[in-house]
Structures are given as C-alpha cells and as structure tokens.
C-alpha cells in the first residue's frame, strides 16, 4: 500500500509537471562564449524567438558592461542614456515588453567593435499561467488502487489547462476512495 501510494504521488507530480508549460526561457547570450568581443550576436539571435516572460542572461568579465539602450542610442553606440546598465559580470534581464530591445557594451569602443545586440520580443502565445495547481486537494485524499490511479491522473491533466478551478470528483470516486481509506486504516 505504501509503495502504491508513493507511486501514485509521483505520477501526479509528473502529470502536473507535464501540464505546466515551460513559458519562461532563459537565453544565455552568446551561449558558452558569453557577452564578449569578437562574437556575432545578430547571428546568435537570428534563430531564436524571444517572447515576453523570457530572460536574457549575460555572462561577461569585468572589462564589459551590459546596457539596454534605445534604438537611436544603439545605432550611435551610446550608453550615456541607458535604460538599464549593469557591470556585475552576470546580468539577467527579464523581457517584459514586446518590440525591439537593444543591448550594447558600454565600455569605450566595444559596441562599435560589434558588442551589440538587437532582438525582437513577441507576445507570449496562449500561455496564460493561471494558477493550475488546484487538483492537489483531490490528490491528497487516500489514493485508490493503482489501476484507477492511472485514469484519475490522466483526467486531471486533461482538465487543468481549461482553466477549471475545481476538479469534478464523481460521487463514486469519493465513496471508493473513502472505502480504500477505511480499508487502509483497518490493514494498518
Ligand atoms: Cu565590452
């Protein structure tokens, strides 16, 4: 009984993990090269789709900075009016708005040497992270047998994305789970 209930819990957790979409992606700028001189960031960004909620992660040494600037400042390589600026060596910038975002290095001539990147952020497509962790109330009750646990977990995963605030539990399921709980009490 203990093993089956533990297995049921794992199944529920796995089902919930599959249901929750991965709507936030961390993009490490330049991948393993990081934020540095001699890297083509337009090529790096060209095959990626950035959506609101994603993060840009800049990793760089202490000879660089990260500054988000306007489009005109991007063209002029000017960081004097930067929207945000950081020189901590590891900068995580959440992409909160759609449209073009411009990043340059504010150190001397690094921007004009190619240490600049412009990206276009699109709106997140149909990923409404409505708190879909409600079916935990139904799963904390005593689990039925392993055969019916599979069906219950699959039905829970299919109902969650439809913004269903309450998981419908059939009267039979309540009676059955109650009987199982009583049975487990008697056994233990
Ligand atoms: Cu630099």
Automatic annotation (TrEMBL):
Residues 1-24 form the signal peptide. The keyword rRNA processing does not apply. Keywords: Glycoprotein, Membrane, Metal-binding, Signal, Transmembrane, Transmembrane helix. InterPro entries: Cupredoxin (IPR008972), Phytocyanin-like (IPR039391), Phytocyanin_dom (IPR003245). The chain crosses the membrane at residues 169-187. GO terms for cellular component: plasma membrane. The keyword Transmembrane helix applies. GO terms for molecular function: electron transfer activity; metal ion binding. Residues 25-123 form the Phytocyanin domain. Residues 124-167 are annotated as: Disordered. This is Phytocyanin domain. It comes from Dillenia turbinata. The lineage of its organism: Eukaryota, Viridiplantae, Streptophyta, Embryophyta, Tracheophyta.
